[in-house]
Amino acid sequence: MSKLEAKNIVKYFNHDGHKLKALDGINLNVSDGEFVCLVGPSGCGKSTFLRIVAGLEIPDNGEILFDGKPIENTDPDRIMVFQEGALFPWLKVSDNVEFGLKMAGIPKNERTEISRRYLDMMQLTKFADSYTYQLSTGMKQRVAIARALVMDPGVLLMDEPFAALDTQTRNLLLVEMQLIWKVTKKTILFVTHNVAEATVLGTKVAIFKNRPSSIKKEITIDCSRPRHVEDQNLFKYHQQILNELKPEVNRDNHIEEKYHH
Amino acid sequence: MKKNIIIKKIIFFAILIVIWQAVDLANIWPDNIFPSPYEVGEDLMYGISDGSLFYGIGTSMWRLAVGLVIAISGGMILGIFMARTETINQTIGSLVLGLQSIPSIAWVPLAILWFGLTDAGIIFVTSIGAIFAVTINTYSGVKNIDPNYLAAARNMGAKGNQLIINVLIPAAFPHMISGFKQGWAFAWRGVIGAELLFSFLGLGFLLNVGRQLNDVSEVIAVMLIIMGMGMLIDGFVFKKIEDRIMSRWGLR
After folding, report:
1. Which of A142, A163, B173, B221 could disulfide-pair with A122, CB 3.0 to 4.6 Å?
2. B128/A27 Cα distance (integer angstroms)
3. Domain presence at residue B196
């Protein structure tokens, strides 16, 4: 049985009073422990799809089964890591990480014990008592990942979490992310517009069409880990994905031309 | 740097007092109309030595404190309700905007009729003058919360009161603190104004006593105290809280 099964997901947006079709029948199967990367042109609705999986948005049609049950609302079993982290500036790093546990009513000493484990995993122990304004962007994303992992979610949803990072920090986190995946055996859905990132991380890459969007192709990345951005073996996958994306991006440009002339 | 600013301030106020003394020495107005800084100082010392000034400050401060606590808690609750429920915003919200335009002193007659010449009446005027500023700022604070905070909180299982206490209020706090600042300023004006008209203890009452005794220097002395207390609370309470919040929230 699939961990996650999206069936014909359709989503409209309101744009200046017009209905705009964002998602046009997304079908996706994710097995337990898979690391699926969603790539596509910007604005294609891949983040929207992730928010639907999180339960933050309701689709206009179709349904997503999670462990065989339809998703109707948010649930700490499906935790999202946001692009900007969305950490709470009024809480210390440790309290940020413990937030979900606190909401679940877990007593303080247990929370501390659990959070300590993940702070250690994300190399944040030194920063446990810091406030988020004292952290670099990379550190903030580590906190955001730790905050998600403490909930021990059935699926981890990551919405371009490394998009705002500099190259070195990103490359470091790409390696760590693979380790985390290996150690925690989590099912991960990872949205990115960066093809290299997708091939390094994913067991499978799902390519989104331009709006109104559906999944154009799924490519299985069969390569040993830990992978790095410069790995020669990944190049053929890069090319393949870029070729699939090219008409989508061009279509985007074409639309822009029509607007500008 | 900081020291520099303090020195500038001291020099400025020293010059101001010198000019005041000079004007007094020029004898343009009689002393009972325009007292010298020395006479005002004398009155201040007199008020301090017989304790009446401290008693006045104490009375005004506790009325202010009670009024402000009512205004802040009531204003926060009302503001959060307005931000969470559109119907409440459309109905009560418009009433709040209307009531906000009533100067707190205009509530005094009603307060006297309802509460008589009591502390409760003065506290009523103090809190009603401040509550709507807190309400409006809380409302806009909650409305302007980064939606990702709320999404993340919901996602991690926060709901209902848990969400309000752990996320909504702290996330809106930078906005709310400016509401508290405005609210305190309104409350301070309210409490002094009400005391003046109620003529029932406090700094406002002392002002009135000065007027009745034709004692200009006492009036000015009490006004200086009112100004001083205002500057103190502004600078040491609200400014400090605000600075701390702003830097922790990463807004400065």
Report:
1. A142
2. 58
3. yes
